[in-house]
Amino acid sequence: MASLGVAIVRQYERGVVFRLGKVRNVREPGLRFMIPLVDRMRKVTMRTITMPIQSQQIITRDNVSIGVAAVAYFRRVDAVKSIVEIEDVQVAVGQIAQTTVRNVVGRSLLDQVLTDTESLNESIKDILERITRQWGVYVLLVELKDIELPPPMQRAMARQAEAEREKRAKIIAAEGEALSADRLAEAADVIADHPVALQLRNLQILGEIAVEKNSTIVFPAQFLDSVRAVSQFIEREAREAGLDHPLERGHDAESASRPTAAVR
């Protein structure tokens, strides 16, 4: 129908009319009439185009070979330039995008490629936008979607991550031990000021054990407290009886410090 001077331009298209080989105007969507055999129309889609960038082997700045694939989103904003300024704009955008990805990633370190992909994407987009602006094309987005690492590098990174986890675990355990030591020191100070607290703690532990297992438990009495009490008792008795020989008191104290208590 274009040869008869009638053309239908869809909503997402623009029609560039050439009259005798020269750009006449751009037709909007709808039913459009032209001069038969004189005018020719080229339709240009204005929709966003998704262009995959195939994976390619790239050597980073720290000499690591990786495979990088990406995807680019662009659309034509100037129908005339996209036809007049370049022969095939889609092929041109694909080629320049692939080259730009290789150049930007090749200038970066491996850690930057893996952790700072947002800045790399933005750098690639800015470069493409400066180049494609003269073709009437606007680049919306460029994303690195797949990064392939060589197997030795994957194993090395796995070992590094495992070592980092172990280091954090040891640091946390050491901090826990330090806090535990501080709390135990505080508890020892409290027990030193209040000796009865240790007896109460022992009774509490015995009660907990008795609840879990019904059995007979034999445990030694507080040896030091018993020795101290017996020594005080012997000294008091010695003073009352008038004994001054230290061996007699020592012999009595040693014989008095042997018994143990049994709790059922």
UniProtKB/TrEMBL annotation:
Biased composition regions of type Basic and acidic residues, renumbered to the chain: 241-255
Listed InterPro entries: Band-7_stomatin-like, Band_7, Band_7/SPFH_dom_sf, Stomatin_HflK_fam
Record domain Band: where: 4-161
Pfam families: Band_7
Listed Gene3D superfamilies: 6.10.250.2090, Band 7 domain
Start and end residues of each stretch annotated as Disordered: 241-264
CDD domains, sorted: SPFH_eoslipins_u1 (cd08826)
Gene Ontology annotations for the cellular component aspect, listed alphabetically: plasma membrane; side of membrane
Family designation: Belongs to the band 7/mec-2 family.
Name of the protein in question: Band 7 domain-containing protein
Organism listed in the record: Actinoallomurus iriomotensis
